[in-house]
Write a structure and sequence with these properties.
binds magnesium ion, globular, 131 residues, 7 helices, binds cytidine-5'-diphosphate, alpha+beta, four-stranded antiparallel beta sheet, 4 strands
């Protein structure tokens, strides 16, 4: 069994899509090991997105992710990291495969509904920030 880190992003929470997204997570066979609704603080956002520091979208990303409540989840399944990325869809909802969460509930690059770790090492690092 592998664990990964997921976020239902602020705009999706505000739009009342949390239940629909959690439904998709469970239907895909993930176990929700832990889950909580929080407002992310500046230090958490900066730690989460450290790899993007200095990029043009970084400041906007940190402010969007700290502006209002979101839901963080610890998910478990065989191949959880890759399978969660697959269920999320491509970073830009415009390019996300039909039926993926980002295709269904994303609006744009900065409002793309969900976050998912990109490797088992990232998952361990990101989970430790929030759980
Ligand atoms: O989230 P994911 O791992 O698919 O993408 P990323 O490249 O790690 O970027 C992190 C987040 O930054 C994305 O989910 C987007 O919300 C945001 N982003 C953005 O606003 N503009 C970009 N040009 C690239 C990413
Ligand atoms: Mg990423």
């Amino acid at each position: 069994m592998q664990q990964t880190f997921a976020i239902i992003k602020p705009h999706a929470v505000k739009s009342k899509f949390s239940g629909k997204i959690i439904d998709m997570i469970e239907a895909a066979g993930f176990e929700i090991v832990e889950m909580k609704k929080i407002t992310m603080n500046q230090a958490q956002a900066q730690a989460l997105y450290a790899e993007h520091e200095g990029k043009p979208f970084y400041n906007g990303l940190v402010s969007i992710m700290t502006a209002s409540p979101l839901i963080v989840l610890k998910l478990q399944k065989n191949e959880a990291v890759a399978l969660w990325r697959e269920l999320m869809g491509a970073t830009n909802p415009a390019n996300a495969a039909q039926g993926t969460i980002r295709a269904l509930y994303g609006n744009s690059l900065d409002e793309n509904a969900v976050h998912g770790s990109d490797s088992p090492a990232s998952a361990a690092r990101e989970l430790a920030i929030f759980f």
